[in-house]
Design goal:
There is one protein chain. This protein has 434 residues and is an alpha+beta fold. The chain contains six helices and 18 strands. It has two domains: 161 residues, 3-Layer(aba) Sandwich (Collagenase (Catalytic Domain)), CATH 3.40.390; 178 residues, no CATH class.
């Protein structure tokens, strides 16, 4: 532990503050370029100011109490609110390539002021927010060597007056906090009630890895936030029925590699049709026993068992098909099934979505295509029922007249893979079908 040097300002957008680093998508023709949009979905390079979710990352869990309130919960109870569920989520999503290892401080660390003194709320002012961060790190510094950790979670007493659960977020610093010989570039501030929102810590941790919010925040903050992606990815909503990260996100994070992503050829002379066999995004590799898929309307499945990091061979087969449609635009296709993190999904099938690498977080960088625009699904449990049944089933197709593209689901294999056909130039002279 040592002296703390604090930056007094924080900001909500992080541009390309560090030089580019190698990306698993480098050299692939359908990999969009990273731009200066906050949490850009470009993946030709990696933003080196963010940690990569690979191997094992160690996380410090610091529990903050306040002088005007005696905590009703213990740190251990709050640990159990988030772990091992958060670690298990990432182990499954990464096919065992990433392990998030928590290190909870087993006692409360008292802040110097009541929570109400910091004005904690969703869009709290920078001065009060920085005061909170400064006091939290200073209070923890004599007790914890923060240089040992890749991620720091500041978890407030959920029952203290002035704690607002809507303020949970990742704070990015324009200048790092220097403590114990290390530089803290971002802190995860947690103000959740106990029990917390489902998958909330996994959602916030996604931001630590440079993933954007996929919801589109209304100007007045009151309209539907979930119209862009609905349930399909916890970065859209932590409450979603299908919280598995999109294949595009997995590609960006390095959990899908060259062998798992197929780029639809678009060069001059390329055939107008291409066929692919897709393995469901959440399915384990061939040879591993997949969990049973619940029938639609059946009782909820038991919690999926964790996949220990390093225990599996990683994903096999093609999991993502991408058609590049512009300099910063692409059409992505993946199969979603009721396995793993998606075991409560409303529907199964081919999910099609648009990706924009120059659209910032909260402004809709992803748009899920509604494969069934005249129906909806799971009205009682979906965050946006109109998109809950978005995936295409066998024998169904979707056509984009603007891009002159048709996507068809042509069949399934006995072991659960899906056959699709992508046709370019639909409606243009010389384009056939078959």
């Amino acid at each position: 532990m040592g002296a703390v040097v604090m930056a007094l300002t924080a900001f909500m957008g992080v541009g390309l503050v560090a030089g580019p680093a190698h990306s698993v998508a480098a050299g692939m023709p359908c990999a969009l370029p990273r731009t200066d949009a906050h949490h850009s979905l470009g993946l030709d390079t990696w933003n080196a100011s963010y940690p990569r979710p690979e191997g094992t990352l160690d996380a410090a869990l610091l529990f903050l109490s306040f002088p005007d309130a005696t905590p009703m919960a213990t740190p251990r109870e709050l640990v159990n609110d988030h772990f091992p569920s958060t670690s298990d989520f990432f182990a499954r999503a990464s096919y065992g390539k990433f392990r998030l290892r928590p290190h909870p401080v087993p006692h409360w660390i008292e802040m110097p002021k009541p929570a109400s003194a910091y004005g904690i709320r969703r869009d709290w002012g920078a001065d009060l927010r920085n005061s909170y961060l400064r006091d939290a790190v200073a209070a923890a510094d004599p007790q914890v060597d923060l240089s040992r950790y890749d991620i720091v979670y500041l978890i407030a007493d959920p029952d203290a007056p002035g704690v607002d659960s809507d303020a949970t977020k990742v704070v990015n610093l324009d200048e790092p906090i220097r403590v114990d010989g290390t530089a803290l570039r971002r802190l995860v501030t947690v103000f959740e009630q106990s029990p917390p929102d489902r998958n909330v810590l996994a959602h916030e941790t996604g931001h630590v890895f440079d993933l954007p919010d996929l919801y589109q925040r209304p100007a007045d903050g009151k309209a539907d936030w979930d119209t862009r992606v609905g349930d399909w990815d916890l970065m859209g909503s932590q409450f979603g029925l299908a919280p598995e990260p999109l294949g595009w996100h997995k590609w960006k994070l390095g959990w899908l590699g060259h062998a798992n992503v197929a780029c639809v050829p678009v060069t001059d002379g390329a055939p107008p049709q291409a066929r692919y066999t897709l393995r469901p995004l959440t399915d384990p590799p061939h040879g591993a026993a997949p969990p049973a898929r619940p029938r639609r309307g059946a009782a909820p499945a038991a919690p999926a068992p964790p996949l220990p990091a390093g225990a599996g061979p990683g994903p096999d087969g093609v999991r993502l098909v991408v058609l590049r449609t512009g300099e910063n635009r692409a059409l992505a296709m993946e199969v979603r099934a009721r396995t793993g993190n998606d075991r409560h999904a409303c529907a199964e099938g081919l999910l099609v979505y648009r990706v924009s690498s120059d659209t910032p977080s909260t402004h809709g960088p992803v748009e899920v295509i509604d494969g069934h625009p005249h129906t909806s699904g799971c009205r009682e449990s979906s965050v946006h029922s109109r998109l809950a049944d978005a995936p295409l089933g066998v024998g169904e197709s979707w056509t984009d007249p603007q891009e002159a593209v048709r996507v068809e689901v042509t069949g399934r294999t006995a072991d659960g893979d899906w056959h699709i056909r992508v046709t370019r130039g639909v409606g243009r002279p010389g384009t056939g079908s078959g």
